[in-house]
Design goal:
Strand content: under 5%
Number of helices: 7
Radius of gyration: 17 Å
Largest sheet: none
Oligomer: single chain
Distance between the termini: 27 Å
Number of strands: 0
Order of helices and strands: HHHHHHH
Helix content: 55-70%
């Protein structure tokens, strides 16, 4: 989602609102189950990007899944003999999943979380 937002923000057309641009481009960012999910939505059931984002995250990043990633992050510890850089790389796994669902707002927040846990 974050990458999709970044791409959309590079597009500037005075004839369309950012809401419309995101809704029009979003289907092209999906594949497999996500694309099928979108195609099965009732036509006109979602009229705003915020609604689309909320429904998508609810379907593909339900709270039990994101809570699991959050738990992995908050209970994260460095393994014996693991270098800082190896530890950081391993930490990035669950963090990237949360970033993609917009649950971490910035790289700063990600680093802050890491050092709080570490």
């Amino acid at each position: 989602m974050r990458e999709f937002e970044e791409v959309c923000n590079t597009y500037n057309d005075l004839n369309y609102s950012m809401n419309t641009i995101k809704l029009k481009l979003f289907p092209f960012s999906l594949k497999d189950k996500a694309k099928t999910w979108l195609q099965n939505l009732r036509l006109g059931s979602i009229r705003a990007w915020d609604e689309m984002q909320q429904q998508f995250l609810k379907k593909f990043f339900p709270s039990h899944r994101t809570n699991s990633f959050k738990r992995q992050i908050t209970t994260f510890t460095q393994k014996p003999g693991e270098t800082f850089y190896q530890c950081w790389d391993r930490y990035k796994g669950p963090v990237c999943l949360l970033e993609s669902s917009f649950l971490l707002e910035s790289e700063f927040q990600e680093r802050e979380l890491f050092f709080d846990v570490w």
